[in-house]
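Worked example 3 (structure in, sequence out).
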């Protein structure tokens, strides 16, 4: 299939460190990207080294909903280790809503909002121990990332809460619109804010997002720093540059009928936008 990519996002964090592992395949190569608090790395592989079955394998590395195994040894990146996942938290339904039935430039899926980690990774000599840490998994597929977008994710709070929100320019059937997907899970209840549910994007900037939908309102403040360059797809090839901060400070406020349901802060907020 030409003009096509698939990519997965496996986030691992403890109270002090964050590592995201992004394996995938595009028209020009299979790849693994790593992003830490200190830097970002990309290693390309031949497409024939990508095998997808019950697990996904790229060369000697393996990825699944049960965990990951990294075995990478190149001039720029030496990474190894295993992390097991448990107690995954899937979303209630497809985040794309009825848009999943239409041809879309990019399809977004959330595989686990929150799960437990056990294990460690060593990247270029530095060991990251994520035992009893927290994870997150999502995936994207299609032709290209949106021309402009912001994406934010966090699940490391003092209260049980997981949040993913994205606002993007969406080409659809010959026109463009500002699309939004937002999933909030708080104290075991999932809330959904989305274009197909009537959400209004009141503000979308690289430091603040405000969403309103019926009786609900979400405010997000981001203090981004240490942004790293990552590769992203354009027409099926990994030729575009985006910026991601693996872990930054953020504050999330969620209201129902002007009553605040929560106001939570985290230093492990992941934030991404177009370069």
């Amino acid at each position: 299939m030409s003009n096509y990519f698939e990519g997965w996002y496996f986030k691992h964090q403890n109270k002090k460190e964050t590592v995201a592992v992004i394996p995938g395949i595009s028209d020009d190569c299979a790849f693994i990207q790593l992003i830490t608090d200190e830097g970002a790395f990309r290693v390309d592989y031949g497409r024939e080294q990508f095998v997808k079955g019950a697990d996904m394998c790229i060369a000697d590395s393996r990825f699944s909903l049960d965990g990951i195994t990294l075995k990478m040894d190149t001039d720029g990146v030496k990474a190894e280790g295993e992390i097991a996942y448990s107690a995954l938290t899937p979303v209630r339904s497809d985040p794309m809503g009825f848009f999943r039935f239409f041809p879309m430039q990019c399809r977004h899926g959330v595989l686990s909002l929150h799960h437990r980690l056990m294990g460690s990774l060593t990247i270029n000599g530095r060991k990251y121990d994520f035992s009893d840490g927290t994870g997150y998994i999502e995936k994207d597929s299609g032709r290209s990332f949106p021309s402009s977008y912001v994406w934010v994710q966090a699940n490391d709070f003092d209260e049980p809460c997981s949040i993913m929100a994205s606002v993007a320019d969406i080409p659809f059937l010959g026109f463009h619109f500002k699309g939004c997907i937002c999933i909030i899970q708080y104290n075991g209840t999932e809330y959904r804010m989305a274009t197909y549910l009537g959400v209004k994007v009141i503000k979308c900037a690289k430091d603040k997002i405000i969403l309103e939908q019926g009786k609900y309102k979400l405010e997000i403040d981001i203090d981004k720093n240490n942004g790293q360059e990552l590769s992203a797809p354009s027409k099926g090839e990994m030729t575009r540059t985006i910026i991601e901060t693996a872990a930054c400070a953020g504050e999330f406020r969620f209201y129902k009928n002007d009553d605040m349901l929560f106001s939570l802060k985290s230093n492990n907020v992941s934030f991404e936008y177009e370069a």
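Notes: Residues 226 and 247 are 8 Å apart (CA to CA). The chain has one domain: 5-274.
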